[in-house]
Amino acid sequence: MMSSHVFNDPETGAVPAPELPPLATGATATVDAEPKNALDRFFEISRRGSTIGREIRGGIVTFVTMAYIVILNPLILGGVADVSGNALDGAQIGAATGLTAGVMTILFGLVARLPFALAAGLGINSFLAVSVVGQVTWPEAMGLVVINGILIVLFGATGIRTAIFNAVPAQLKAAITVGIGLFIAFIGFVDSGFVNRTPGGPPVQLGDGGSITSIPTLIFLIGLVLIGVLVARKVPGGILIGIVASTILAIIAQAAFKLGPSFENPGGWHMTIPEIPTALVTIPDFGLIGQFDLIGSFGRIGALSATMLVFTLVFSNFFDAMGTMTGLAKNAGLAYKDGTFPRLRSAFVVEGLGAVAGGATSTSSNTVYVDSASGIGEGARTGLAAVVVGVLFLLSMFFTPLTLVVPIEVGSAALVVVGAMMMGQIKEIKFTNFAVALPVFLTIVTMPLTYSIANGIGVGFISWALVNSLSGRARKVHWLMWVVAAGFALYFVRGPIETMLAG
Description:
The chain is an all-alpha fold. 60% of the residues lie in helices and 2% in strands. It contains 21 helices and four strands. It has helices spanning 38-43, 52-66, 69-77, 90-111, 122-132, 138-158, 160-167, 170-192, 215-232, 238-257, 296-301, 303-331, 344-360, 372-378, 383-396, 400-403, 408-422, 434-450, 453-470, 479-492, 494-502, and strands spanning 118-120, 195-197, 204-206, 366-368. The strands form two sheets. Strands 1-4 form a two-stranded antiparallel sheet. Strands 2-3 form a two-stranded antiparallel ribbon. Strand 2 and strand 3 form a beta hairpin. Helix 4 packs antiparallel against helix 15 (383-396), helix 6 (138-158) packs across helix 12 and helix 9 (215-232) packs across helix 17 (408-422).
């Protein structure tokens, strides 16, 4: 085994934890190894205990797991009429989604040099489609997203975001990682049909009426077991092998049973239908690029209402991404003792630029994807994996039919496995101290139960500040925790405030 060595991060001055045990992939937080070539030196591949092959595999797995956004983003944003009756074109959204995700993920990989991929954020695009464009036009809504991104870039560049990050207690950071693990596992369960809504009574149930009734869900379970066994046996490329094998099984099942989509057949596929495509190449249409209005919404609905919308976007974007990066860095073994990670400020700035780019291309804010955990589970540890993901997103614009081959049920199996991996951080939490136990518990459970990382962080911040202060541990609460907790309190009651402003 390579010997551990301590390096100070040039941006944060933090010292990594050399005593971290090797991960299943063989990587450690930092190892003492000579780079083999310029590519190795730039991305610090050997230093992070990885290899070029492992980074490429990890990048492919991350892309396969999150390629659904190229199809899903047009479904969410396309066809929704704004206040003027205009709607965005689905084909243009799809092309711009692949372009923006590709460019921003490559930039993130080259600048932040971390194995995180960026794409249009699902929470924010849904917020725009459901809550914003009923008040403003699509260009005006995207202008608000650009303003949100500019603010996040400023927070990152000035160190405000880093200061808030450093103010978060280590055990709360560990809870964020665990909560994200449960969250992505829950996403996998829901997207696969293993967990469903009930017509009445409990909010969720197993399958349909308490039973597994569909072939796609059965394939999810087969894929889950297959990937789990391969990872347990430490097979190199286990997650990717499991995804490929499960996809082949899905293609065979579709050919044999003609299941079709779930909106036509309750036992069908939830998003993409696994079929061998008849055509491979499509020509992207970039007509939406630059179609945003930076200040139009302030004139249409007033400065106060527009500012409240920006506030909501910033809070969701800011803390959702911060929590995601915290969890991913810990899962990759890249986090230092204080919870920070290499090139932290660069990561915050580029992630903010993703929001600006998303608004400028009408794809909604682009942010770090929790699905990157699948590539990390495959062994990705550096920005080279992000560059691979970005290149594949750019190629996806021309090979859209290929992105439709892997069904979301198969990708969901990988998410559940990675969620189980991320649960390992729970050992960092001292549940014997209830002033710690309650806030971290609320953080962990709120994420999957409200389908929001930001909500979990907010509940954690507020409960940590209140419980520790009122139980005689006020010195354990950094003053920035109080500032952010107050902001989250405002965020959680934004609905009545927006109603009051509208009245």
